[in-house]
Design brief:
Elements lengths: L2 E6 L4 H9 L4 E7 L3 H11 L2 E3 L2 H5 L6 E4 L6 H10 L3 E5 L6 H14 L3 E4 L6 H11 L6 E9 L11 H4 L7 H11 L4 E9 L10 E8 L4 E7 L9 E5 L3 E4 L13 E8 L2 E8 L6 H13 L7 H20 L3 E2 L20
Parallel strand pairs: 1-2, 1-4, 2-3, 4-5, 5-6, 7-10
Antiparallel strand pairs: 7-11, 8-9, 8-15, 9-10, 11-12, 13-14
Helix pairs in contact: 4-5, 5-10, 8-10
Length: 349
């Protein structure tokens, strides 16, 4: 039976509409948006039912799954309500803004006995898959350090300019990087340090963030995200005991399989070398395909709520660090687990 799905939020939500429609075992049953004009256009484009409010979606017994593509600060309350109404839930990234919210959603999932997942589609990006395959060959030996870079010259638009609604730059595209690091790190993270910088765009949300994550096995990860750089560095540099891997691809949006030959550049025992690594096909369709197979066939869910929670903890700790000017130890506990920094400014020396 097709999983009857409603996408809530029709800005970035149109990506999800297309993904659901392209997935066997799923049906785009409706769309929801508070903007009446946007809702009317979407219902006409997709030929589905329109809902003006989330409450209307949750009251419909014909709806099986709700995909929430709304403001980051709305994710938790909306997901808890949807689970309480007996719906499966997919959240666009980030999962939420703090681990206390994540725990609240996971508890609601357990009570409802429904699925809860986060759209970490970039686990299927060609650049990430290429790096993962290269690491699996053991060519660089035991991994020591991961560097991820994302840069451009652009500010945030709409509600993403607002710290309360957005959380910060690392909560946006950086949410995918946090998830990828949790998959590659090889052990739980034990500490996080974050620093921010504000540039010419004049928003509450920073224009640059630099994050250092230490994992329990000694691996260090460095993430740099910039909206004030006219030059983009390599997306990935991964160093190990025997050499280093470099993946220049800056990633791209892909719902389709794309197989492109790639070379991972390396320095093996100090000698320059190039290792041919056939790039694995990357397709975001794999995310919803897995959701469909999980719900229809009982296959294992690839992106779990617990994994999404781990990524949230990295993001939250980075902003606590930036606000306090200190290295933050993990796991976050007590009141700190519910803390969402609101006055993140550059730390002055």
């Amino acid at each position: 039976m097709a999983i009857r799905t409603v996408v809530v939020g029709l800005g970035m939500g149109k990506w999800h509409c297309n993904g659901v429609k392209a997935t066997a075992g799923m049906e785009l049953a409706g769309v929801c948006d508070i903007d009446a004009a946007r809702l009317a256009l979407a219902t006409k484009e997709y030929g589905v039912k329109g809902y003006a409010t989330l409450d209307a979606v949750l009251a419909d017994p014909e709806v099986d799954l709700v995909t929430l593509v709304t403001r980051h600060d709305q994710h938790c309350d909306m997901a808890v309500a949807a689970l309480g109404a007996g719906k499966h839930v997919v959240l666009d990234k980030p999962f939420c803004l703090c681990v206390a919210e994540a725990d609240r959603m996971i508890a609601a999932r357990d009570r409802a006995k429904r699925m809860l997942s986060c759209f970490h589609c970039r686990r299927w990006d060609p650049d990430y898959l290429t790096v993962r395959r290269a690491l699996d060959t053991g060519a660089i030996g035991r991994m020591l350090q991961i560097q991820i870079n994302q840069a451009g010259f652009h500010g945030q638009g709409g509600w993403r300019r607002n710290r309360k609604h957005m959380g910060g730059l690392f909560y946006d595209w950086g949410a995918h990087f946090a998830d990828q690091l949790c998959q590659l790190g090889g052990a739980p993270a034990v500490s996080v340090s974050g620093r921010v910088q504000y540039g010419p765009h004049g928003h509450e949300v920073e224009d640059f963030i630099h994050v250092i994550v230490e994992f329990g096995n000694g691996v260090l990860a460095l993430v740099s995200q910039s909206g004030i750089s006219h030059f983009a560095g390599p997306r990935w540099i991964v160093s190990g005991e025997k050499g280093s891997l470099k993946e220049d691809g800056q990633g791209h949006d892909t719902w389709d399989n794309e197989v492109q030959p790639a070379f991972v550049r390396a320095s093996l025992n100090g000698v320059p070398a190039e290792i041919k690594v056939d790039r694995l096909p990357g397709s975001w369709k794999s995310y919803y395909q897995n959701v469909s197979e999980h719900l229809n066939e009982g296959k294992e869910l690839i992106v779990t709520a617990e994994q999404a929670r781990a990524a949230v903890e990295l993001m939250q700790a980075a902003y606590i660090s930036a606000e306090d000017g200190r290295i933050v130890a993990l796991p976050l506990k007590g009141a700190e687990a519910a803390r969402v920094p609101s006055k993140v400014r550059p730390v002055k020396g």
